[in-house]
Design a protein that fits this description.
Layout: E1 12-14, E2 16-18, E3 21-23, E4 27-32, E5 39-45, H1 48-64, H2 72-88, H3 90-101, H4 105-128, E6 132-138, E7 141-149, E8 152-156, H5 162-167, H6 170-176, E9 179-183, H7 190-201, E10 209-211, H8 216-225, E11 231-235, H9 238-248, E12 254-258, E13 263-267, H10 273-285, E14 295-301, H11 305-318, H12 337-352, E15 356-359, E16 363-364, E17 374-375, E18 378-381, H13 388-391, E19 398-404, H14 407-415, E20 419-420, E21 422-426, H15 430-439, E22 444-447, E23 462-463, E24 466-467, H16 472-477, E25 480-488
Parallel strand pairs: 1-5, 8-9, 8-11, 9-10, 11-12, 13-14, 13-21, 14-19, 18-19, 21-22
Antiparallel strand pairs: 2-3, 4-5, 6-7, 7-25, 12-24, 15-18, 16-17, 20-23
Helix pairs in contact: 1-8, 2-4, 2-6, 2-7, 3-4, 4-6, 8-9, 10-11
The chain binds nicotinamide-adenine-dinucleotide.
């Protein structure tokens, strides 16, 4: 199939990638830019039989091919070539993400840079990570703990960071020597197929990276139910994560679950309020609030609440909502009409319950925004811990404000949700901030910063945010199996048939 450019007037066409070949698929789906309504891409829709073929190919290449036995340095070189090719195509990848997701181009470029960094880090891991030796058990015994690739990895990713979520998994699995069958979200599959094409160009053997685009209920379920998938690495909603757990139960495959979040920013009384306000705006607006670690709850000490809110209202008013392709846009379009309705519904219900909508929360559909799904970011005060906007993942630019009077109350509020993905603490003193950070039950806590990630930092959740870790050494280890090979160097004394 031809590779078309990401530009104003082309419709990109993507097939399935199985055994290194791109095939059209019996059915297709179309994607329209959520900011303009213009059709931008067509994706193949895999059937269950297509998925089974892709899994069989990944299985064959893992079991019989030489990829899992490539040396670490050779896999490392391939990952570096992939990173270079992604850097060559960086602007194209960023534009595809902007068109398919509706995310501001500035942020899409950041996602691409972050994704390239993942490939480079994974290349370093492939080069340097080795097994270990256990030699302190017995003078005559030595154990080698060799790290073997875990096998065929199913990967299922969401629509909010299509490229970044893929790259938090794929290069780490490739560094380990695994093969992959990847199912991206149906509406934002473009960059996943682009990366698979680049893997081929980088010299990664056919059948190592297979892509099956299509419906979650067909493709995702087939991956979950397959006995030939060794590990299933899922990023998405808690509800679908639970469905996958049920569907995969009889196979006893290993699962990794990166699920929803409901992050809080805790502002202690000694915090630098200007710095906190900047961070809170970043956390709440990033990726138009369609972010699992978005700052969705502001827990603020009552002594500084009014002052901080005054700064935040001004900051909300300065946020530029609009065309994601415009370099100065801060908040782009919601992913689709149904999701815009959900976000607006949360605000309307909050208003009906008598909450104070301090700012925003309405649809924007004037002039150039008429054909897209835009919402003015909302700031809502006086939110009780039992309120749905305190408890539920909204996945849009909506910030709920709750006041507290002691650090213990702040910790209790932060932990009083089903999720445990990420939270932020703002405080000038480490002796104040760190006890709070340690008492919060989430996989990540930021102090005086937010949303800072790097390929070498593990990320993941607790509670209903899931389990398993991505990125860092822990992320690599998710795709490996330690095997213990124990050698006795001198004959052992007999245990049985010996007079005691
Ligand atoms: P989603 O759960 O609806 O879909 C995620 C993926 O699962 C998609 O590829 C979808 O097609 C597939 N899927 C749907 N039904 C399936 C089924 N029955 N079996 C198997 N696969 C199925 O999530 P979404 O709407 O694409 O993304 C938003 C969600 O993702 C939010 O809840 C967000 O918090 C979460 N998320 C989490 C992280 C994290 O790191 N923890 C990161 C990004 C997004």
């Amino acid at each position: 199939m031809s590779i078309s450019a990401a530009s104003e007037n082309t419709i990109r066409s993507y097939g399935l990638i199985i055994a290194g070949e791109e095939e059209p698929g019996a059915e297709t789906s179309t994607r329209s830019d959520p900011a303009t309504g213009r059709e931008v891409a067509r994706f193949a829709r895999a059937s269950r039989e297509d998925v089974e073929r892709a899994i069989a190919e990944a299985r064959r290449v893992f079991d019989e091919g030489d990829w899992p036995r490539w040396t670490g340095p050779r896999r490392s070189a391939a990952l570096l070539r992939l990173a270079d090719l992604m850097a060559r195509d960086a602007e194209r990848l960023a534009r595809i993400e902007t068109e398919e997701v509706g995310k501001p181009i500035r942020l899409a470029r950041g996602d691409v840079a972050g994704s390239i960094a993942m490939a480079r880090y994974a290349a370093a891991v492939a080069q340097t990570e080795t097994g270990e030796v256990v030699d302190n058990v017995d003078a005559d015994v030595v154990s080698m703990v060799v790290r073997e690739p875990a096998g065929v990895i199913g990967m299922i990713t969401p629509w909010n960071f299509p490229l970044l979520q893929l790259m938090q998994k794929l290069p780490y699995a490739l560094a380990a020597g695994c093969t992959a069958v990847v199912k991206p979200a149906e509406v934002t599959a473009g960059t996943t197929v682009e990366v698979a094409r680049l893997c081929k160009e980088a010299g990664i053997p056919a059948g190592v990276v297979n892509i099956v685009t299509g419906r979650g209920s067909v493709v995702g379920t087939a991956l979950a139910e397959s006995p030939d998938v060794d590990v299933l690495s899922f990023t998405g909603s808690t509800e679908v994560g639970a469905e996958i757990t049920r569907a995969s139960a009889s196979t006893t495959k290993r699962l990794s679950m990166e699920l929803g979040g409901k992050a809080a920013a805790i502002v202690l009384p000694d915090a630098d309020l200007e710095q906190a306000a900047t961070g809170i705006i970043t956390g709440a607006m990033y990726n138009s609030g369609e972010c699992c670690v978005a700052t969705t709850r502001l827990l603020v000490h009552e002594s500084v609440a009014d002052e901080l809110l005054a700064v935040l209202v001004e900051a909300f008013a300065r946020v530029r909502v609009g065309d994601p392709k415009d370099e100065s846009t801060d908040v782009g379009a919601m992913i689709h009409a149904g999701h815009l309705e959900t976000v607006l519904g949360y605000v309307e219900d909050a208003r009906a319950r008598g909450l104070d909508i301090v700012f925003g929360g309405e649809a924007l559909a004037e002039g150039p925004l008429a054909d897209g799904y835009f919402v003015r970011p909302a700031l809502i005060d006086g939110v009780d811990r039992r309120d749905p906007i305190f408890q539920e993942e909204i996945f849009g630019p909506v910030l709920a404000v709750t006041r507290f009077s002691t650090a213990e109350e702040a910790i209790s509020l932060a932990n009083d949700v089903d999720y445990g993905l990420a939270n932020t603490v703002w405080s000038a003193g480490m002796q104040t901030a760190l006890p709070v950070a340690r008492a919060i039950r989430s996989g990540t806590v930021w102090v005086n910063t937010t949303l800072e990630n790097a390929p070498q930092m593990p990320t993941g959740g607790l509670k209903r945010s899931g389990y398993g870790r991505e990125m860092g050494r822990a992320g690599y280890e998710e795709f490996t199996e330690p095997k213990t090979i124990t050698v006795r160097l001198a004959p052992a004394a007999p245990v049985f048939g010996v007079e005691q």
